[in-house]
Specification:
289 residues; alpha/beta; eight-stranded mixed beta sheet; three-stranded antiparallel beta sheet; TIM Barrel; globular
Length: 289
């Protein structure tokens, strides 16, 4: 129903996905069709994700033309972004196959609500995944996300077991998933199952969709989540949607110096040398080139 008719086509920095350890400062051609398999009360892209294709302004764009446009715009990747890529699974696979043929990277930004077999089909053709771990209780998932937590955890484990690049993002929503114990539970599970080197992004909620009555996330809540995760041993923890914050930067896990300095999604200085800290030579995990 949505094959070949995207409603979003944009040139973005890969950092917007957010991807902070993949093709730093590269451009991505972002593409999305209408629809989603979840219905988050706070959806930040509800104008596209919570609509049918009959309700959106669409473009006719076959897979080969998507890749041609990415090359024309000198993008380093194609990002399936803004809505849920599993909705347009066949379109994703066909675009990714053409991109792979022409040596162009692909990125999938997803809520991770997918069965194992189709996920493994995507692992064959997608280079990097950003998975939204939207909270860490079944109650939150059922009440706010209108789904369940365990399939998302299984998705994360499956991607981690593959060689594909993985980053995880949690949008912190005031009063709903901003409790300190939630941060601890998520971080403990994350560290045990995904390890210390997978990047974790805590991002700021802006009032949208069904939750316009809530305030934006206090920066202090993001800072608390980041501190808890780092104190428990996760090396690369970021704060998102808060420009000019120390949580935008990538720090060496050994000496603590800034190896990539950012202002929001903009890379100001990339100090990596041979994918490592230039001061102590500690390797910084990522798919940089």
């Amino acid at each position: 129903m949505v094959y070949g008719i995207p409603c979003v086509l944009a040139l973005d920095p890969v950092e917007k996905c957010p991807l902070f350890h993949f093709k730093v400062n590269g451009g991505a051609l972002s593409i999305a069709t209408a629809g989603c398999n979840l219905s988050c009360d706070y959806c930040q892209n509800w104008q596209f994700s919570q609509k049918s294709p009959e309700e959106t302004r669409n473009f006719s764009l076959p897979p080969a033309q998507v890749v041609s446009k990415a090359l024309e715009y000198k993008a380093s990747a194609i990002a399936f972004f803004y809505t849920e890529p599993t909705i347009y699974y066949e379109y994703v696979k066909d675009i990714a196959a053409e991109a792979k043929r022409l040596k162009l990277s692909t990125v999938m930004v997803s809520g991770g609500y997918i069965n194992e077999l189709p996920l493994k089909g995507l692992l064959d053709c997608i280079d990097a995944f950003v998975i939204g771990l939207k909270g860490f209780t079944e109650e939150f998932y059922q009440k706010v996300i209108h789904g369940t937590l365990s399939p998302v955890q299984n998705t994360l484990l499956t991607i981690k077991e593959s060689s594909k690049h993985l980053e995880v993002v949690t949008l912190i929503v005031p009063t709903l998933n901003d409790q300190e114990e939630n941060f601890r539970s998520e971080s403990r599970w994350f560290l045990k199952n995904l390890g210390p080197d997978v990047p974790l992004h805590f991002t700021r909620f802006n009032p949208q969709f069904r939750l316009k009555g809530l305030p934006p996330t206090p920066v202090s809540a993001l800072e608390k989540a980041r501190k808890i995760a780092k104190d428990l041993g996760i090396h690369y923890v970021y704060t998102g949607n808060v420009p000019a914050h120390e949580g935008n930067h990538t720090y060496c896990s050994k000496c603590g110096k800034i190896v990539i300095e950012r202002l929001g999604f903009q890379v100001l200085h990339n100090n990596l040398k041979n994918n490592a800290c230039p001061w102590c030579e500690t390797r910084v995990p990522g798919h940089w080139n």
